[in-house]
Design brief:
- This protein has 17 helices and no strands.
- It is an all-alpha fold.
- The chain has one domain.
- The longest helix is centred in the last third of the chain and has 30 residues, at 310-339.
């Protein structure tokens, strides 16, 4: 019990401790595939609203907006264009398009502000959030182990407790990069890296493979000075992949598909998107419109409901008007990370950018964007709290 209290930096403030419990539940819920996420999200947002109104800390919110005015302005611009595009294209809207616009604001902007608000009150540390992200990644791995050991079905790719291999692969890649960046004990780091890498490989998620590889190459080329231990890590990774490739035929086929650029129909989807964007380039077709515009014509192992590319999805849903502020947010985030030498965060931003070239949506993927909100908090939060003194 004392260990848990120390982990949460418990300071005998009951309000603080309640928030930490809610933060724990919310952070862990992101890594699940149940309604637990919605419940945990709802509770922490309600607590946030109560705290502001009860303590009348409205000036804190104004200060947060001022300190992050560039991101605030760009986010507002994008949200307005997203809402407007959806409003004028109701014939292409899904049943949930309008609610998705509202959820986009609540799930990501509110969480980003919420984290900054409580962080500046010294309610938690950045290192706690990183621990929670690592813990969530390990939970995903445990789900994968359970599936591998106890599943009665033939397993073609590990999915854990998710319905699809890609979320599982995404979290394995995230856990791999978090381990590289934030685990300092060499023995523990090596074990975590090998476990994360094994299940990342067995997920068969090629988008996660490519994104993890690109972020890792950047890490070792531009951030980390390679020492003897790093050579051991790199050698172990290469040997592990070689063994898996030589002795596991399904993995060979999946790697072959990647090398030969077999995109699971993405080329046809992208061509379709480009043609449709040309017809409506200014405002696009609105939130969650791809399925209706495409009339459900794309089916690759399941109905395709999104363009599977960051830039095309932005242009498809919001046109040039929404694309510009969103992409400026991306550029500004990379610039801020470079300017402030936040190399660890930069590595993870690269991971997100690469994986969204092939999968997930830039404004609808709840798990991925919830993680991204936390990463952006780590990037833009000041370093002048008690934690850093």
């Amino acid at each position: 019990m004392n260990y848990l209290l120390n982990m949460f930096n418990y300071n005998e403030n009951k309000i603080n401790f309640i928030f930490l419990i809610l933060l724990f539940l919310y952070s862990i819920s992101i890594f699940t595939s149940t309604a637990f996420y919605q419940i945990a999200f709802g509770f922490i947002v309600l607590f946030f609203i109560w705290h502001i109104t009860y303590y009348k800390n409205f000036n804190n919110l104004a200060n947060i907006a001022k300190e992050n005015k560039i991101m605030t302005i760009l986010f507002i611009c994008f949200t307005l264009f997203l809402a407007f595009s959806t409003l004028i294209n109701q014939e292409f809207a899904s049943k949930k398009s309008n609610s998705h616009v509202i959820l986009f604001i609540l799930r990501y902007a509110v969480i980003f502000i919420l984290l900054l608000y409580f962080y500046y009150l010294d309610y938690f540390s950045k290192y706690l959030l990183i621990k929670l992200l690592l813990l969530g990644s390990l939970m995903v791995i445990i789900g994968g182990i359970y599936e591998a050991v106890f599943s009665d079905e033939d397993i073609h790719s590990i999915k854990g407790y998710f319905a699809d291999k890609n979320p599982f692969g995404f979290f394995c890649g995230l856990g791999f990069l978090l381990s590289i960046n934030y685990i300092n004990k060499n023995n523990i780091k090596l074990i975590l890296l090998m476990v994360m890498l094994l299940f990342l490989a067995l997920s068969f998620s090629r988008a996660a493979w490519v994104a993890t590889m690109m972020a890792t190459i950047f890490y070792y080329m531009f951030i980390k000075k390679i020492n003897k231990y790093d050579i051991v890590v790199i050698f172990s990774i290469v040997i592990g992949i070689a063994i898996l490739y030589n002795f596991y035929e399904p993995f060979q086929h999946r790697v072959s598909d990647l090398i030969n650029a077999k995109g699971a129909g993405r080329e046809n989807i992208w061509k379709f998107c480009i043609e449709k964007i040309k017809l409506n380039p200014i405002f696009g077709y609105g939130m969650d419109s791809f399925q209706k515009v495409s009339n459900g014509q794309f089916y690759y192992g399941g109905l395709v409901t999104r363009p599977h590319n960051l830039e095309l999805h932005l242009l498809f849903d919001t046109g040039i008007c929404g694309f510009i502020p969103y992409f400026m947010m991306i550029i500004y985030s990379f610039y801020h990370a470079l300017k402030n030498k936040k190399w660890q965060i930069l590595t993870i931003l690269i991971y997100f950018f690469v994986i969204m070239q092939f999968d997930y949506t830039p404004h609808m993927s709840s798990r991925q964007l919830s993680i991204l909100s936390i990463i952006l908090f780590l990037l833009f939060s000041r370093d002048d709290t008690k934690e850093n003194k």
